[in-house]
From TrEMBL:
<dbReference type="GO" id="GO:0004674">
    <property type="term" value="F:protein serine/threonine kinase activity"/>
</dbReference>
<dbReference type="InterPro" id="IPR021720">
    <property type="entry name" value="Malectin_dom"/>
</dbReference>
<dbReference type="InterPro" id="IPR001611">
    <property type="entry name" value="Leu-rich_rpt"/>
</dbReference>
<dbReference type="Pfam" id="PF00560">
    <property type="entry name" value="LRR_1"/>
</dbReference>
<feature type="domain" description="Protein kinase">
    <location>
        <begin position="357"/>
        <end position="500"/>
    </location>
</feature>
<dbReference type="GO" id="GO:0005524">
    <property type="term" value="F:ATP binding"/>
</dbReference>
<keyword id="KW-0597">Phosphoprotein</keyword>
<keyword id="KW-0723">Serine/threonine-protein kinase</keyword>
<keyword id="KW-0067">ATP-binding</keyword>
<dbReference type="InterPro" id="IPR017441">
    <property type="entry name" value="Protein_kinase_ATP_BS"/>
</dbReference>
<keyword id="KW-0812">Transmembrane</keyword>
<dbReference type="InterPro" id="IPR001245">
    <property type="entry name" value="Ser-Thr/Tyr_kinase_cat_dom"/>
</dbReference>
<dbReference type="InterPro" id="IPR000719">
    <property type="entry name" value="Prot_kinase_dom"/>
</dbReference>
<dbReference type="InterPro" id="IPR011009">
    <property type="entry name" value="Kinase-like_dom_sf"/>
</dbReference>
<keyword id="KW-0677">Repeat</keyword>
<keyword id="KW-1133">Transmembrane helix</keyword>
<feature type="transmembrane region" description="Helical">
    <location>
        <begin position="299"/>
        <end position="321"/>
    </location>
</feature>
Length: 500
């Protein structure tokens, strides 16, 4: 084993794991393990071998990846366990494609409006050309008893070809065992595939070159489309063209075309090593019409312009509907000029102060609406009176209350800090009275009623230092007509010093 240079165990359905070291295979230069059932991780010594070693691990069930390189064929090598990829070493698709055209084994060529991409990269016994984005090739097979040469994997015609589009048939991709074209980045759907063949190696003269008969199978999407295929027989002679059409369905964005030699045909004629699959060109065209790129770009540009405008219109409409935009401009005429009479608060300030009108902060409810306790950003405690939609008090009453209270100044009148007018939101911001109302003290819970009101305090409430003098003051204002209603103990508020 120490002197072993070539090891070929392909197509034997072997399973299990590979050894973790290669101490007994120090002289090994070529190893072909394609089409087996090996599992487990790919040993590190595969990564440690240089580029001059040919190693073929394609079509196995390994559960780990290896470093990608041209002479290590990893095509469909990891199809088992938690680590599973359809095809290894591929980069992400930059765009979806609807067609692919390949001049197999030859340079780039233009036929009419169709450009055939070059496929003239040298082949190999374990070659995996994965660096292209649009399509990749996997080559398996060693030409036995023939001096190693990369040129063996590209056939070249030596005579003059008289068929149409001869540039596609001057060269051909050749392999002794298996040749796979993998086309990713396709849009899912049906595709018409044209496989171009022309026998340019065998001859039909009286020499021994006419004795060769390469026979192989062709698979598309793992379906046999050509069985025991003989190019000369199908085309009606050498240097003649045969094009096979087939419709394939792409469901996972990828197409696979595989040519496989199954051991049939000649292997020694016209000379050693000349056998196996051969193909001249490949056409892949979608059966559905691809979108017009120019039109698509126009749609993208239009969408990029229209969509933001549409979103802006929706946003502005929503803000207008909620009243954030029409709050100051569409308010009724009765509300204009209130900012000259009192301070103005924003609705955002009020929401922040009352914790979004948290029910916990609700102090009470009257004919005007609900009253909430709040705390401004500077720590000032406030009482917020919110006009209810069900309230019978309208804008005029709202204006009157602001105008009257802002004009009246008395020690026993609650101070008005300001108001908020945004959209349908009408709010009054008052000085907060710490100890609630007189009714709260007299008729509240037993614990609150336990608070004794001395006669001196009661006298202060009703007498010249309290509510009474305030009412008299209001009734005797010169030049003003003040109507007092609902002068109940519920509207007599106490501050923190228990002053009315």
């Amino acid at each position: 084993m120490a002197q072993l240079k070539i090891l070929d165990l392909s197509f034997n359905r072997l399973n299990g794991s590979l050894p973790t070291n290669y101490d007994a295979l120090q002289s090994l230069e070529k190893m072909y393990l394609t089409w087996n059932m090996f599992t487990g991780p790919i040993p590190d010594w595969f990564n440690q071998r240089s580029y001059r070693y040919e190693l073929d691990l394609s079509y196995n069930n390994f559960t780990s990846e290896a470093k990608c390189r041209d002479t290590l064929n990893l095509f469909k090598s990891t199809r088992g366990g938690n680590y599973s990829k359809p095809v290894e070493c591929l980069s992400a698709c930059s765009e979806e494609r609807y067609s692919v055209h390949i001049n197999c084994g030859g340079p780039e060529a233009t036929i009419g409006n169709t450009i055939y991409e070059a496929d003239d990269e040298p082949g190999g016994a374990a070659k995996y050309a994965f660096k292209r984005e649009d399509w990749q090739t996997s080559t398996s097979g060693h030409f036995w008893d023939v001096p190693a040469s990369l040129d063996n994997y590209i056939a070249q015609n030596k005579s003059m070809l008289r068929m149409d589009n001869s540039v596609l048939y001057t060269n051909a991709r050749l392999t002794p065992l298996s040749l796979t074209y993998h086309v990713p980045c396709l849009v899912n759907g049906n595709y018409t595939i044209k496989l171009h063949f022309a026998e340019i190696v065998m001859r039909d003269n009286r020499s021994y070159y006419s004795l060769g008969r390469p026979i192989f199978d062709v698979y598309i999407q793992d379906i046999v489309v050509l069985k025991d295929f003989d190019i000369v027989k199908a085309a009606g002679g050498v240097d003649e063209v045969y094009i096979h059409n087939y419709t394939a369905n792409v469901t996972n964005g990828a197409l696979e075309i595989r040519l496989h030699w199954a051991g049939k045909g000649t292997t020694m004629s016209p000379k050693k090593g000349i056998y196996g699959p051969l193909i001249s060109a490949i056409d892949v065209e979608s059966d559905f019409k691809p979108p017009d790129k120019g039109r698509r770009k126009r749609f993208i540009v239009a969408g990029a312009v229209v969509l933001p405008l549409f979103l802006i219109i929706i946003l502005l409409s929503t803000l207008w509907w909620k009243g954030y935009l029409r709050g100051r401009k569409s308010r009724d005429r009765e509300l204009v000029g209130l900012d000259l009479l009192t301070g103005i608060f924003t609705f955002r300030q009020i929401k922040a102060a009352t914790n979004d009108f948290d029910p916990v902060n609700k102090l009470g409810e009257g004919g005007f609406g609900c009253v909430y306790k709040g705390v401004l950003s500077d720590g000032t405690q406030i009482a917020v009176k919110q006009l209810s939609a069900k309230s019978k008090q309208g804008n005029r009453e709202f204006v009157n209350e602001i105008g009257m209270i802002s004009a009246l100044q008395h020690p026993n009148l609650v101070r008005l800090y300001g108001c908020c007018i945004e959209g349908k939101q009408l709010l009054l911001v008052y000085e907060y009275m710490e100890n609630n109302s007189l009714a709260h003290v007299l008729f509240g819970t037993k614990e609150i009623q336990a608070t004794k009101l001395e006669w001196r305090t009661r006298q202060r409430i009703c007498g010249i230092h309290g509510t009474g003098i305030c009412i008299i003051w209001l009734l005797n204002l010169q030049g003003r007509c003040i109507q007092l209603w609902c002068c109940s103990i519920g509207n007599c508020l106490w501050d923190e010093q228990r002053q009315i």
